[in-house]
Design goal:
The protein has 350 residues and is α/β, with parallel strands linked by helices. The chain is built from 12 helices and 10 strands. The chain has an 8-stranded mixed β-sheet with strand order 3-6-5-4-7-8-10-9, with helices on both faces. It has a two-stranded antiparallel ribbon with strand order 1-2. A hairpin with a 6-residue loop joins strand 1 and strand 2. It is globular and about 45 Å long. The chain starts with 30 loop residues before the first helix and ends with a strand. Bound molecules: S-adenosylmethionine (SAM). S-adenosylmethionine binds next to helix 8. The site of S-adenosylmethionine has 21 residues, from helix 8.
């Protein structure tokens, strides 16, 4: 593997400050807070090691009367309506096997599709169907989903990706301050990292999230094959630009090899910043394209057309990635580079 760490090594990020579970319109008491004293055993079991950011909010916030009765804590209670960002009312089935989730505010119902929860905005519409750019659509096919861990992903090594195990170790180093909390493996594909996060036991909840139905089905198959308990794992279909979580409710977001596939990296990073708590960490890897110096204006102008040819893939430079994170309130940018590969972390500003 090419030498990593040329620029910055994945040093520990600053200690996580307090959480920020404020909703745009009113406060929703985080269920985890209630589990601190005298909650039923099962709740404690699931969130026993929830990070300080979720559990250690100021007592006055916990005492504030919510307008929405929060659902009892299950792994589903971390999920929210992607339309209005309010929590669900029917996440109360203790087994986590509810057949649908209903938004506490707009009343939209989201189905349990057996392999995953479909929390896309358009789910349930009968006439409307939306096609995404090729870089998203290609991963929705059964063939690519099947091939993904059977050779496709391994090819990334030619672009400088260090390989799954090394990437996971590096990501863990960056994510260290968020251990014990909830991690979203955004654009998880067939769940190669999601499964490692669950197996590591480092997080109280792992949300494996992708837009591709077939990737999520494939992920579920691997979960079963590998006998991984789904007690701390939720599989969710959602668009990266419309994440189904309450503001400031997530400790960490990991996105392996994905930014270049997102239709709008800006909307996606803004969304990731919205759902992260203060001090929460975003770790991502992608292909970088600073072989095209962004300082040369003509090449900047040409980039969208080049991207169209490449199936709408958006290859950004490390300078652009840092700039985008900063513009979205994610600071303390650190990264490692190897060839066209970059892994970086950024922290949600307090
Ligand atoms: C190259 S794969 C990365 C999979 C995995 N994270 C990894 O490290 O190998 C890119 C993933 O991004 C997902 N994706 C593309 N557009 C998306 C979107 N708009 N919202 C959520 N996921 C998306 C694809 O479905 C695909 O699974």
């Amino acid at each position: 593997m090419a030498a990593l760490g040329a620029a910055t090594t994945p040093a520990a990020a600053p200690a996580a400050p307090r959480g920020n579970n404020r909703h745009p319109r009113h406060r929703v008491a985080a269920p985890a807070r209630r589990s601190r004293g005298g909650a039923p055993a099962r709740r404690l079991e699931l969130h026993a090691s929830v990070s300080p950011a979720v559990t250690a909010d100021a007592p006055d916030e916990a005492a504030a009367e919510p307008l929405v009765e929060p659902a009892p804590e299950t792994k589903l209670s971390k999920l929210a309506c992607p339309i209005c960002y309010y929590p669900f009312v029917s996440a109360s089935d203790p087994s986590g096997d509810a057949s649908s989730l209903e938004c506490s505010t707009c009343k939209k119902v989201y189905p349990n599709k057996q392999d995953y929860w479909d929390l896309t905005v358009a789910v349930g519409s009968t006439e409307y169907s939306e096609s995404k750019p090729a870089a998203t659509e290609i991963f929705r096919t059964p063939l690519v989903s099947f091939l993904y861990e059977r050779g496709w992903r391994q090819n990334f090594i030619w672009g400088g990706f260090p390989g799954l195990e090394r990437e996971f170790e590096m990501a863990k180093t960056y994510l260290n301050p968020t251990i014990g909390g909830t991690i979203v493996d955004a654009s998880c594909g067939s769940g190669l990292f999601s499964r490692l996060f669950v197996k590591s036991g480092l997080y109280s909840l792992v949300v494996a999230l992708d837009f591709s139905e077939n990737m999520l089905k494939q992920c579920n198959e691997y979960v079963k094959q590998e006998n991984i308990s789904d007690e701390r794992l939720a599989l969710v279909r959602a668009d990266i630009s419309r994440l189904p979580f309450v503001n400031g409710s997530i400790d960490a977001v990991h996105a392996g090899a994905a930014i270049h596939c997102w239709p709008s990296p800006a909307c996606a990073v803004a969304e990731i910043s919205r759902v992260l708590r203060s001090g929460g960490i975003f770790v991502a890897s992608t292909f970088v394209a600073d072989v095209i110096p962004p300082a040369i204006p003509i090449l900047r102008i040409a980039r969208p057309y080049i991207s169209q040819i490449g199936g709408n893939n958006t290859f950004l430079s490390e300078v652009e990635l840092e700039d985008l994170c900063k513009a979205c309130g994610l600071v303390d940018f650190k990264f490692v580079r190897s060839g066209f590969y970059i892994m970086f972390s950024a922290t949600k500003a307090s």
